[in-house]
Write a structure and sequence with these properties.
By secondary structure, the protein is α+β, with helices and mostly antiparallel strands. Helix content is about 30%, strand content about 15%. The strands form two sheets. A five-stranded antiparallel β-sheet has the order 1-6-3-8-2. It has a three-stranded antiparallel β-sheet with strand order 5-4-7, with no helix packed on it. The longest helix is centred in the N-terminal third of the chain and has 19 residues, at about 20-40. The two termini are about 25 Å apart.
Length: about 290
């Protein structure tokens, strides 16, 4: 681990191989499948003889079709996954937490996590894809960004066609850039706080080849962006942002309850009393949940 820690300090990122167990990954993938069945009206019977539908092209095709025809139902899957215990167990796995603590040079008990997220990125859909950016601009829990990191876990092998993460080694040494955000096209797009091209061009750009079970850890100040998914499948990934809560530059934070308005209306139509559930806008004003 000493060599990995040195590499993390120098380059701003490390790919740890085979750190997430298959059982953890499959538990989350199964939850994705069951939520798809709930919100699409399909059942396991629609995938006869398929033991793990999430590994079958037919499931990806149906998910992509749902995204096109009923984006609100697809969004309900996204929102349900935010609080899935299978996601929590994956990002809080001992191997993940111990690795985070090693790279941040602290103890596991001093770590906070914000906005763990399961991503379901369809082909040729870049509405929630960020340009080159630093994670610190979206996650201000540690003021200088050096006391936090991102953990990105692919649930499937991420081929070049699926869109691999691009990183600029050593770019974290630039510190936090003073940047301004771009106005969103509409609520279905994610706010951009892009790094100027001239800054990115100062560094080498590499694409990270990661397989299911690997985990990419990178500094909150590292220049990075996701690649384009040009395949015929969704890219299933997980990400969490970790912070040192005992650091001087840490600010305590809280989660704001968000209630999916599409599902609230569906419950009302089924005669459920939802008078205690506030009306929420579909997406927050900045991209707190995407990388």
């Amino acid at each position: 681990m000493t060599e990995l820690s040195k590499s993390y300090d120098t380059n701003g990122f490390v790919l740890a191989k085979n750190i997430v167990s298959e059982s953890r990954r499959n538990a989350l993938l199964e939850n994705i499948f069951k939520l798809y069945c709930k919100y699409s009206g399909n059942t396991k019977a629609d995938f006869p003889g398929i033991k793990e539908p999430w590994n079958d092209q037919s499931f990806h095709t149906k998910m992509i079709d749902l995204r096109k025809k009923n984006s609100e139902a697809f969004g309900a899957i996204y929102d349900s996954l935010k609080t899935s215990i299978t996601l929590t167990q994956l990002v809080a796995d001992d191997k993940i937490v111990e690795t985070v603590a090693t790279f941040l040079k602290t103890s596991p008990g001093d770590i906070s996590i914000s906005e763990p997220m399961t991503r379901l990125d369809p082909p040729n859909d870049n509405r929630n894809k960020l340009d080159w950016h630093q994670e610190r601009h979206f996650f201000p829990q540690n003021r200088n960004g050096m006391h936090g990191l991102v953990c990105w876990v692919p649930l499937v092998d991420v081929t070049p066609e699926l869109g691999q993460i691009g990183v600029c080694p050593k770019s974290h040494q630039s510190g936090l850039l003073k940047l301004s955000g771009k106005k969103k096209k509409n609520l279905s797009y994610t706010t951009q706080i892009p790094i100027p091209e001239e800054e990115v061009n100062k560094y080498e750009i590499i694409s990270v080849s990661a397989n299911a079970g690997d985990a990419l850890f990178f500094n909150m100040l590292l220049f990075h962006k996701s690649g384009d998914n040009i395949s015929n499948k969704l890219r299933f990934t997980v990400q969490g942002r970790f912070h040192i809560s005992t650091a001087e530059d840490f600010i305590p934070f809280d989660y704001v309850n968000y209630y999916n308005p599409y599902m609230k209306q569906k419950l009302i139509e089924k005669n459920y009393d939802c008078s205690d559930i506030p009306d929420n806008i579909r997406q927050p004003p900045v991209a707190l949940q995407y990388t």
